[in-house]
Design goal:
Elements lengths: L5 E2 L2 H4 L10 E2 L14 E6 L8 E5 L10 E5 L11 E3 L11 E4 L17 E8 L5 E8 L25 E2 L9 E4 L4 E4 L37 H5 L11 E12 L6 E5 L16 E5 L9 E11 L2 E6 L4 E2 L4 E2 L4 E3 L5 H5 L5 E4 L3 E5 L3 H4 L2 E5 L4 E2 L1 H4 L5 H13 E4 L31 E3 L3 E6 L2 E5 L15 E3 L14 E11 L11 E4 L5 E6 L9 H18 L3 E8 L10 H14 L5 E2 L14 E7 L4 E9 L9 E10 L18 E7 L22 H22 L4 E6 L7 H8 L3 E2 H5 L5 E3 L2 E3 L2 E5 L1 H4 L2 E6 L36 E5 L111 H7 L5 H6 L4
Helix pairs in contact: 7-8, 9-10
């Protein structure tokens, strides 16, 4: 059952725009920052060379245009050079023809892209002498659709920044222009200084023009009720018709790209609104501004824009000369049935009940926050249920019902065109974290766009005048350290996000992702390193990683995605030694050491990144040499690394604990299996069940790890073992079943309710610690320390200074994109006379620079690792679905809409994804890659739900 929806007035809600707080409104003039048609762009000639380009303004004869600024922006929304804009000199006026052609270069490129709808080109603008934007017209695009948003570049006029162009829908061939006609923009021969469609004056007997007859007065049109325009279906029953509607302006977006305002029937909303009836609110698409709280009348054409019913206004709204009762917000839980959401489209609401943040990946780019009804995030279905099972389909349908977005009232990209505008919702010290509780403090308007229901604030939050209009607050869920996990020893896994002390500027050919000032941040492509572009960027990355590891503070820590320095002509352990040096410098003592690479290195599983172990010598010590698995199954992943550890003698132990048994050591194997983003062939193509690509390869790798682990346990003479690392497999997927059937237990699944990763607005665990039966009996506790996956990617070192709002801060938060999983266990002290110790640790000099790491071990006398070989042979055997019932609770079975979408690909340098392997994969795994290797999974998630029938019901059309 959906909770009873109640209402309260905007005054009781303390709503922004105090003029809504009064119960009635007197008529008042609308705000008019765009000169209400005194002048407009009437022709754009761009399809020749610069000498034939012009932008024509139409206005009454004699209109003074002194000091007006006229120019053009490129397809990217920026003024290309000073020559592309001009200021009209004093005395400039419109001639008798009613038009003035301004000679100024205009870019002539028209192409498909993601920043606007359809094939689109440059845009022309006119700004009056007071600095107000008069007109902004785009070549091409979709009429009534989304135009390009002007950037915040230094050459872009202030009045233009963040404004969205109006698509003309017209484009011209060579030598032609586009001109505004009575019906629409159209291509034709250039007619500078002449208004299109203007009839030639007929001469009189004296040779002068006869005065035009006065136009007949317009026949009054009876207003159509907004509810009749909306109807009760997904689309308006009046689509394509011209209507006149009246309503109170509830939200207005003159800046930010939405280009319009919402109106709602006076007195509507609140308790009186029916759950399944027609909506009483609607969006008005208009270049003219409207003041919140005014009662207005608007005439225009009804249509659907990306699934939202709207009126494309033919002109400015006019005030209605009568009082109007304020609409009320509908209060209560945001409904989960599509029809009930349709019934609220365009209306004020005040959401209540339990609401949880489930996605913040696009927050730093588009100012949107993914929300879910209830007290839990959306779950990766295959993290809680077997792929393709009825339970997985139920979970995905539940995800679709519960999800929606909190938006920012705009369409601006805060990493490109709006990079100089502070991004809303985020800050370094008060982040919006996945899993946090959201509480609405102000009403919002229900919108729909790009396949998602969006709760819009009443004004664009990127506007400097928005003030405290942010409509929601979020609980702070940060933890400064992992929870206590008990035991006298501990182990954890941590993906360190392409930790490369060898920076891009030390190599040749590197290309970079850059900050808003053009300074390189991270390596994009073109060379053999990943990670930071230079020493300054690396210092920011290392600060976070060092802070995180020293707070994780485990006896043993496995690492993934650390530089394999042997690929760069250095000792294989050079980067690992550099990290240990930095950790010890920060700790103020020789707290950490690292496990040396073995003498024998594998032919398979070598990559730009590698696996590794570091440990605390005061708590444990390695026994014997480490071993790397050389198996054909790892031709496209990183070779697993095995090491036996034993607790140190009691006299050398810290206050962590002592234990009483004389015990054997334990084997630990760190793994980084093939990612989900690439792979072809039998079993490796995306099957659409949520497991992504290369599933058969991961199954083969899991089998190889199980055999390798058995061998290493036999060599060590122990049945105590941990398998840990980034397995690129969610908890109930096929590769994990291999481990379960071999007798391993997933400690994260059994001992925690937290997840290590976020993708597509869904949480799940790709990082695991598995234990043998003998080891499991010694496990005392576990904790996922959510410092990374739940934080906005905007806080990452790779996004430093990409927006005007500074989000970077030293410390552990967003040090990576995966969260560490910490496990406590009981390890009895080893007798002082047991197995020989490994080679000595790094130099005692804690300040040794990264350029001089401790030498690796001798290469003489090292045993050659042996293990299983053989490439995968097709699809994995499907394990028994009954063998792995999820122990972590999934979300409750409630009802909600389509999963949150992205807004399409962004500009260069946006949050793109790639695979995380360099060996055997084509994309190379360059940064920024939060969510790397999972791009192909999105399609699988869309298909996992019962032939998309349930999803289709919850997701709106298109």
């Amino acid at each position: 059952m959906i909770p009873q929806i109640t209402a309260r007035t905007l005054a009781a809600a303390g709503t922004a725009a105090g003029l809504i707080a009064a119960p009635c409104f007197a008529p008042a003039a609308l705000a008019d920052p765009v000169a209400q048609g005194a002048a407009q762009i009437s022709e754009i000639a761009y399809a020749g060379d610069d000498s034939t380009d012009f932008i024509e303004l139409a206005a009454p004869a004699g209109t003074d245009l002194s000091g007006w600024q006229v120019g053009s922006v490129s397809r990217g929304g920026s003024v290309q050079a000073p020559a592309y804009t001009t200021t009209l000199p004093a005395g400039t006026a419109v001639g008798p023809s009613g038009a003035l052609a301004v000679r100024v270069p205009v870019s002539n490129t028209v192409k498909e892209g993601s920043a606007a709808d359809g094939a689109y080109g440059p845009s022309a603008f006119a700004i009056d002498a007071t600095g107000a934007l008069v007109d902004f017209e785009q070549v091409g695009g979709s009429t009534g659709g989304r135009g390009i948003t002007a950037s915040g570049g230094s050459q872009t006029p202030q009045a233009l920044r963040g404004r969205q162009a109006q698509p003309t829908g017209a484009a011209a061939g060579p030598g032609a222009s586009i001109a505004r006609t009575a019906a629409a923009w159209a291509a034709g021969a250039p007619t500078p200084d002449a208004v299109a469609d203007a009839p030639a004056p007929e001469p009189t007997a004296t040779g002068t023009s006869a005065p035009a007859p006065a136009p007949a007065p317009a026949t009054p049109v009876a207003p159509t009720a907004i509810a009749d325009i909306q109807g009760t279906g997904e689309t308006s029953p009046m689509a394509g018709q011209t209507v006149t509607a009246r309503g109170v302006v509830t939200a207005s977006y003159p800046t930010g790209g939405l280009s319009g305002y919402y109106i709602q029937t006076p007195g509507s909303g609140g308790d009186a609104h029916g759950a399944n009836g027609p909506s009483d609110g609607i969006f008005v698409y208009s270049r003219e501004a409207a003041t919140i709280g005014r009662y207005v009348e608007v005439t225009g054409t009804v249509g659907e824009h990306y699934g939202q019913t709207q009126i494309a206004a033919a002109g400015a709204a006019t005030p209605v000369a009568e009082a109007a009762t304020a609409p009320k917000p509908v209060e209560g839980a945001f409904p989960e049935e599509p029809a009930q959401r349709e019934a609220l489209e365009g209306m004020l609401v005040q959401p209540g009940g339990d609401i949880t943040v489930t996605d913040n990946y696009a927050t730093n780019q588009y100012g949107e926050v993914g929300l879910a009804n209830g007290g839990q995030t959306l779950r990766q279905a295959t993290d809680a249920a077997r792929p393709g099972s009825a339970e997985a389909k139920r979970l995905e349908a539940d995800n679709a019902r519960r999800s929606y977005l909190l938006d920012d009232g705009g369409t601006a990209n805060f990493l490109s065109a709006a990079k100089d505008t502070p991004v809303p919702y985020l800050s370094a010290d008060a982040p919006v974290r996945v899993g946090a509780k959201a509480t609405f403090t102000r009403p919002v308007v229900v919108g729909y766009d790009h396949d998602a229901w969006r709760l819009q604030p009443l004004r664009y939050l990127g506007d400097a005048q928005a003030g405290d209009a942010q409509p929601a607050k979020f609980s702070d869920t940060r933890e400064q350290a992992p929870k206590q996990v008990g035991g006298d020893a501990s182990i954890a896994s941590f993906n360190v996000l392409n930790y490369f002390p060898t920076t891009g500027d030390q190599r040749t050919g590197c290309t970079y992702y850059k900050d808003r000032a053009g300074t390189p941040l991270t390596v994009k492509d073109g060379c053999d390193v990943r990670g930071a572009a230079n020493a300054q960027s690396f210092a920011r990355q290392q600060n976070k990683i060092v802070a995180a590891i020293n707070r994780i503070d485990t006896s043993v820590l496995s690492l993934e995605e650390i530089e394999d320095s042997s690929k760069l002509g250095k000792d294989r352990d050079w980067a690992l030694a550099a990290l240990v040096t930095a950790l010890n410098d920060a700790a103020g003592s020789r707290k950490w050491d690292y496990v040396r690479s073995p003498a024998a290195l594998p032919k398979n599983g070598t990559d730009a990144i590698r696996t590794a172990f570091i440990y605390q010598p005061a708590e444990v010590e390695p026994r014997g040499e480490s071993t790397l698995l050389d198996a054909d199954a790892f031709h496209n992943a990183r070779a697993p690394l095995a090491q036996e550890f034993a607790p140190v003698a009691p006299a050398a132990r810290t206050a962590r604990g002592t234990g009483t048994e004389a015990a054997q050591g334990f084997v630990a194997i760190v793994n980084h299996m093939k990612s989900k983003g690439s792979g072809t062939g039998t079993g490796n193509d995306d099957a659409g069940d949520g497991q992504g690509k290369s599933n058969a390869d991961r199954v083969a790798q899991a089998k190889a790890i199980v055999e390798f682990a058995a061998q290493r346990q036999q060599v060590a003479g122990t049945d105590r073992a941990f398998l840990l690392g980034d397995l690129n497999s969610y908890t109930e997927e096929d590769p994990m079943q291999v481990f379960y059937k071999a007798g391993y237990t997933d400690i994260g699944k059994e001992k925690t309710t937290e997840d290590t990763y976020l993708f597509g607005g869904r949480t799940g665990s790709l990082d695991h610690v598995l234990a043998t039966r003998a080891m499991l009996s010694r496990v005392t506790g576990a904790d996922v320390w959510n410092i990374n996956s739940v934080e906005s990617v905007g806080l990452e070192y790779s996004r430093y200074n990409t927006n005007a709002r500074s989000l970077y801060a030293p410390g552990p938060f967003r040090s990576s994109d995966h969260d560490p999983l910490v496990v406590g266990f009981t390890a009895a002290p080893a007798p002082a006379t047991t197995a020989p110790h490994p080679t000595s640790g790094p130099s005692d000099s804690a300040s040794a620079p990264p350029s001089a790491p401790t030498p690796g071990p001798s290469t003489t006398g090292a045993p050659s690792p042996s293990g299983p070989t053989g490439a995968p042979t097709g699809a994995p055997t499907a394990p028994d679905p009954s063998t792995a019932a999820p122990s972590r609770p999934g979300p409750s079975a409630s009802t909600a809409p389509a999963p949150e979408p992205t807004r399409g690909p962004g500009a260069p340098g946006d949050d793109g994804g790639g695979d995380d392997t360099g060996s055997g994969d084509g994309d190379g795994g360059r940064l920024p890659r939060t969510g790397a290797g999972l791009g192909a999974l999105a399609a699988g998630l869309a298909l996992v739900s019962a032939g998309a029938l349930l999803l289709g019901a919850a997701r709106r059309r298109r």
